[in-house]
């Protein structure tokens, strides 16, 4: 900008706020200094400085007449929010809850006239999340009540093989007060009840640590300027009210599921001829109370969504307190009712009502996913974007996978427990046939996944051939090295496979829906296990059905072991987190809008931390400058924090992102919050923004902003490796960096210096003959360096 159009300004201290990415690191590594000091924060997340920079502001104030020096680096370390003790890997067992919560945020971009459709989309996802809670508790009831207390304890042969069930068996020598079927069910109900209470406790404890972190409240300015669409809404990262409501509703739903398993079985027996009228009346009261409680739970889930346009500090105290307590009281009364003496009641076969519960859950989930797909298609059609993953159907596809995960895990666990209790004796009937069908679809689903892996391998070979020619062209002045060229081409080809994820997810979800429908129809029409239903058909069909049924439960057991093992390694091993941790960090980035028992959202702590730090730094002294530097997932946190700043502060912030998944991952899968409109708006609102990426990076990529915004933000892909062969600057072979160590590239320091130069001592002023819009556009033009 010409000097005549500038106005002088005081040069303040410059701050570079570094935010690390997936896997985390130490402040010593981020600041490249073994001596660091924590200046604010706690053991969970904190901001660090080098020991020599603790008093940097005071020293800068003493030399105001001197030229501005280098920026003061600060490191925001947030890795303890998502890693730490290996026991936290048990959160992975709640993966279906996290996945269905992701579906809430995957809705397509919409306009303001689609508010009702957006609310319907969120409502359908919340209902799908509620069915997953009911399914989890129902699976626990199936294992504890049906398989253990009802079938095995009620069968002499099975109870003899498991001595710990002897006091519950009516045929054993230890038969006593607990041997009556109702009392066995009442005692076994403590297992799913304990599970429900544990989920409530974990959600409440993490709720206090994450959702209770208040963001900055700008008062009236929040409503006028920052209360806009997207992640800039004042209440976006403060979801206490909704999480509290959902936690109360889901806790009540879990307890009511236990009431249904215990109470309806006793009420069904009491309605038989010859039963006491009092018990029959009590049974009808229990069933009526169960219906009323279910209606209230569904009403609470449907009644209210997220409150993002304002900082909602109000909690529905009566609802949050009395809904779980009322359900707990009803459960206690139901257990007393079931434990009433019924000497003629004998347990036989499967627990009544189990097949109807699991069949109803599966049917409702299929219908919810189909309707959700229709709603998502309508939203996408109103504002189509070719970069949106799966043409706006990513949310329904992910919701389908969440329901499938819940069904497969429930069916596999129930089948494994039944095999363990029964052995090879055939003394119990086992779980409802639907769960056996659901476990049996795992082998064919794995075959499809293996076929997709084969397709990816073939595609990788094709891409490697294409990239080989590109690498040879990029390094045409270098002596040819076939092995080196192949390694670089292979890295580029592997990195490009990330863009094939929508096709993989889409095919998997479609196959899962078809197999789930087949399992539901097969169980309802035959009322037999797959092996029994295929008996008498073609030998190939019969053999395949028996093999799938035998392998299904075993694959679930192996999958559980591998799942927890990998999760534990990912929490404790930084190298493992960099490879598989990105998916977990994406899943736990979003607030719990659809399921309160999902793993906690670390961004509800990290984003307010960064916002507070940037706001307090820029407001302390006139002229202070700030470069927000984010790598990988840290760039997403940086962008989210920048959106939360008030406009006057955003204009004093420069953004530097590298290895960023903002567009490649978040923009495609979460277009409503990271789509082209949102990213273009962020580019206009911050002072300046530069993005670095590599062709060998499987996670980061360009921002792809439309028009002139693209070159203003994206630098052309960095060369990786920095040197093809041995040179004076690189006498040893340079590594292929991929997603890591962007600071090693000279382009990083160059772009950072340009951002600082733009912010330093001269600030563009408005032209006398221009309006507000023109002066804002002139501010966004790049400053000559």
Account of the 3D structure:
It comes from Streptomyces phaeochromogenes. The structure is a single chain. The protein is mainly alpha-helical. The protein contains 29 helices and 9 strands. Mean pLDDT is 84; it is low at 1-10, 222-227 and 761-785. The strands form 2 sheets. A 7-stranded mixed beta sheet has the order 3-4-5-2-6-7-8, with helices on both faces. A two-stranded antiparallel ribbon has the order 1-9. It has helices at residues 27-31, 56-62, 95-105, 115-152, 156-161, 181-188, 190-211, 220-226, 240-270, 277-303, 317-338, 354-382, 394-422, 433-440, 442-474, 482-496, 501-526, 530-533, 539-572, 574-587, 603-620, 633-644, 647-650, 662-669, 671-674, 676-685, 709-713, 746-759, 772-780; strands spanning 6-8, 14-19, 36-41, 46-50, 72-77, 625-631, 653-658, 688-692, 762-764. A hairpin with a 4-residue loop joins strand 3 (36-41) and strand 4 (46-50). Helix 4 (115-152) packs antiparallel against helix 12 (354-382). The longest helix has 38 residues, at 115-152.
Main sheet characteristics: 7 strands, mixed
Structural class: mainly alpha
Low-confidence stretches: 1-10, 222-227, 761-785
pLDDT averaged residue by residue: 84
Query: Gap between N and C termini, in Å?
Result: 10 Å
Strand content: 5-15%
The shape is: globular
Per DSSP, the total helix count is: 29
Give the radius of gyration: 30 Å
Q: Tally of extended strands? A: 9
Helix proportion: 55-70%
**Reading side by side through the largest sheet, how are the strands ordered?**
3-4-5-2-6-7-8
Region (Disordered): 755-785
Keywords: Membrane, Transmembrane, Transmembrane helix
Transmembrane segments: 89-106, 118-140, 185-202, 248-269, 281-302, 322-340, 355-380, 392-414, 434-457, 504-524, 544-567
Protein name: Integral membrane protein
């Amino acid at each position: 900008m010409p000097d005549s159009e500038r106005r002088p300004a005081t040069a303040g201290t410059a701050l570079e706020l570094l935010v690390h990415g997936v896997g985390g690191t130490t402040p010593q590594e981020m600041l490249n200094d073994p001596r660091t000091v924590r200046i604010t924060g706690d053991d969970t997340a904190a901001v660090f400085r080098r020991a020599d920079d603790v008093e940097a502001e005071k020293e800068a104030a003493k030399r105001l007449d001197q030229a501005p020096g280098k920026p003061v680096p600060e490191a925001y370390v947030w890795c303890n929010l998502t890693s730490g003790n290996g026991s936290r890997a048990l959160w992975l067992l709640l993966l279906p809850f996290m996945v269905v919560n992701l579906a809430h945020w995957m809705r397509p971009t919409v306009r303001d006239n689609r508010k009702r459709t957006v609310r319907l989309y969120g409502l359908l996802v919340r209902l799908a999340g509620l069915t997953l809670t009911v399914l989890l508790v129902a699976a626990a009831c199936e294992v504890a009540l049906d398989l253990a207390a009802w079938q095995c304890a009620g069968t002499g042969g099975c109870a003899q093989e498991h001595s710990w069930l002897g006091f519950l068996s009516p045929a054993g020598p230890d038969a006593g007060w607990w041997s009556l079927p109702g009392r066995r069910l009442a005692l076994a109900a403590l297992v799913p009840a304990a599970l429900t209470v544990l989920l409530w406790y974990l959600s409440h404890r993490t709720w206090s640590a994450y959702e209770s972190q208040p963001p900055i409240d700008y008062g009236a300015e929040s409503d006028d300027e920052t209360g806009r669409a997207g992640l800039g809404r004042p209440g976006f990262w403060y979801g206490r009210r909704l999480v509290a409501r959902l936690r109360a509703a889901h806790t009540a739903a879990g307890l009511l599921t236990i009431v249904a398993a215990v109470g309806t079985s006793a009420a069904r027996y009491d309605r038989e001829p010859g039963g006491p009228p009092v018990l029959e009346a009590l049974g009808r009261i229990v069933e009526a109370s169960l219906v009323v409680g279910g209606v209230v739970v569904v009403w609470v889930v449907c009644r209210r969504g997220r409150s993002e346009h304002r900082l909602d500090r109000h909690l529905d105290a009566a609802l949050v307190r009395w809904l779980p307590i009322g359900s707990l009281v009803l459960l206690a009364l139901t257990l007393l009712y079931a434990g009433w003496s019924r000497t003629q009641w004998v347990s036989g076969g499967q627990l009544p009502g189990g097949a109807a519960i699991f069949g109803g859950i599966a049917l409702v989930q299929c219908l919810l996913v189909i309707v959700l797909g229709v709603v998502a298609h309508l939203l996408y059609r109103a504002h189509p974007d070719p970069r949106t993953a799966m043409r706006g159907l990513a949310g329904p596809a992910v919701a389908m996978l969440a329901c499938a995960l819940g069904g497969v895990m429930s069916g596999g666990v129930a089948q494994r427990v039944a095999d363990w209790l029964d052995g090879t004796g055939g003394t119990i009937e086992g779980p409802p046939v639907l769960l056996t069908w659901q476990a049996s679809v795992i082998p064919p689903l794995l075959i499809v996944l293996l076929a997709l892996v084969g397709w990816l391998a073939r595609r990788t070979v094709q891409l490697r051939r294409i990239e080989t020619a590109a690498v040879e062209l990029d390094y045409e002045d270098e002596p040819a090295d076939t092995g080196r060229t192949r390694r670089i081409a292979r890295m580029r080809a592997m990195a490009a496979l990330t863009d094939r994820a929508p096709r993989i997810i889409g095919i998997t979800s479609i196959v899962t829906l078809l197999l789930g429908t087949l399992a539901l129809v097969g169980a309802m029409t035959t009322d037999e296990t797959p092996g029994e239903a295929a008996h008498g058909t073609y030998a190939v069909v019969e053999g395949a059905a028996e093999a799938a049924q035998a392998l299904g439960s075993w694959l679930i057991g192996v999958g559980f072991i591998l799942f927890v093992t990998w999760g534990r390694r990912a929490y404790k091993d930084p190298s493992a987190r960099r490879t598989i941790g990105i998916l977990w960090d994406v899943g736990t980035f979003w607030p719990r809008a659809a399921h309160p028992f999902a793993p906690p959202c670390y961004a509800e702590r990290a984003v307010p931390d960064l916002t507070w730090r940037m706001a307090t730094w820029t407001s302390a002294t006139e002229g202070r400058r700030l470069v927000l530097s984010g790598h990988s997932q840290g760039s997403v946190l940086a962008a989210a924090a920048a959106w939360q700043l008030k406009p006057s502060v955003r204009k004093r912030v420069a953004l530097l992102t590298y290895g960023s998944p903002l567009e490649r991952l978040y923009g495609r899968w979460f277009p409503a919050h990271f789509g082209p409109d949102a990213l273009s708006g962020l580019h206009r609102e911050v002072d300046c923004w530069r993005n670095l990426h590599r062709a060998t990076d499987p996670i980061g990529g360009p921002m792809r902003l439309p028009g002139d915004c693209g070159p203003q933000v994206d630098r052309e892909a960095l060369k990786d490796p920095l040197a093809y062969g041995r040179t004076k600057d690189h006498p040893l072979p340079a590594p292929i960096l991929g997603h890591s160590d962007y600071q090693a590239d000279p382009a990083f320091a160059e772009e950072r210096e340009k951002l600082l130069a733009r912010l330093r001592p001269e600030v563009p002023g408005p032209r006398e003959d221009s309006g507000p819009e023109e002066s804002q556009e002139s501010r966004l033009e790049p400053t000559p360096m």
